[in-house]
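Q: What changes when guanosine-5'-diphosphate is included in the input?
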Amino acid sequence: MEKDDHHNKVESALKVNEGIEQPASLNPMLEKEMMRFRKNRPTVEAFLSGIRSGNRNLLGQAITLIESARPEDQVVAEDLINGCLPFSGKSIRIGITGVPGVGKSTFIETFGLYLISQGKKVAVLAIDPSSTRTKGSILGDKTRMEELSVHTDAFIRPSASSGTLGGVTRSTREALILCEAAGFDVILIETVGVGQSETAVSQLVDFFILLMLAGGGDELQGIKRGIMEMADLIVINKADGDNMLKANLAKREYENALHLFPPLANGWIPKTITASALKNTGIGETWKVVDEFINQTSANGFFQKNRHDQSKHILRETISHSLNNHFFKNESMTSQLHVMEQKVLADMINPYQAAQQLLEVYFGKF
Ligand code: GDP
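A: The predicted holo structure follows.
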């Protein structure tokens, strides 16, 4: 009898000694936790009305869903984005970049608080695809933006902690839509001015601010000419104390440099100002420049045109990426590609013809 009992017991790697209750196949605590989450997760309607009424907690949870790679989360995320889209588009989207240490977070804190004092609601998003490597160099440190982060009219969201630049850019754009639906008037998108992320950010924003230091030299500051060309406003930061003279000198130098760039189609001439977040100077002036830009480009139609161009760009780029992936992830195509590569290297066929032949095979197939 005892022997039979023993044989009837379910074999499990988690089996413990006789006389002690066998554990469930899943950690019961975890199972409970997951059940609670599924049960408590607000419905799409509850999310949408929460976001629309400016509930920052629900907004944060919704952005987590957007960033999630789980297919079931993505279904909900899509509903949320679509539900928010009709209420989006009314904010001013500003990109802020500069090398680490230039004073971005201090500037954003002061600038954000200034905007709030002007009756605006401010959201801060960050793009930092390197954050897994650097353990979250942007906004990772909780002491950053201390005052702004607790303000009821502010919402601060660190970058998704992992993912490709394309993925992080996408979730930032979608987070932006949600923030707009939640009634934020100004959205600041922070990025470290050393890599490709600026180009990605410039596709998301209306206005681009580059923070620079006096006396550092462009090379030293790691700022590429291309990034300078994207700037609608260069802010020479930390213009205080002993730095004042140097900052004013740098301002003139950058003004001269900007004049050498070809004029922008939207008619805007990029400006240079000096600022100090610590002394609270140049902050109101920054907003004045943004305001001037909005007035000018709204009047000549380029504000809206820029947004339309951005949407079209995203549509086309997404298609182009998918097609690219489809081709290069197809085993048959990649093996034919390798054969063709050898032929090209042996000068048996020129690369254009080779590409044409491969594409004919590909289009014949799909
Ligand atoms: P981030 O890495 O670009 O975000 O730079 P932070 O905002 O963290 O600032 C880097 C350092 O510069 C900190 O020690 C700040 O206190 C200092 N800092 C920031 N803004 C100013 C400023 O306007 N003037 C001066 N003198 N120091 C500043």
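Observations recorded in class: Residues 98, 100-106, 237-238, 240, 276-278 surround guanosine-5'-diphosphate (CB under 6 Å).
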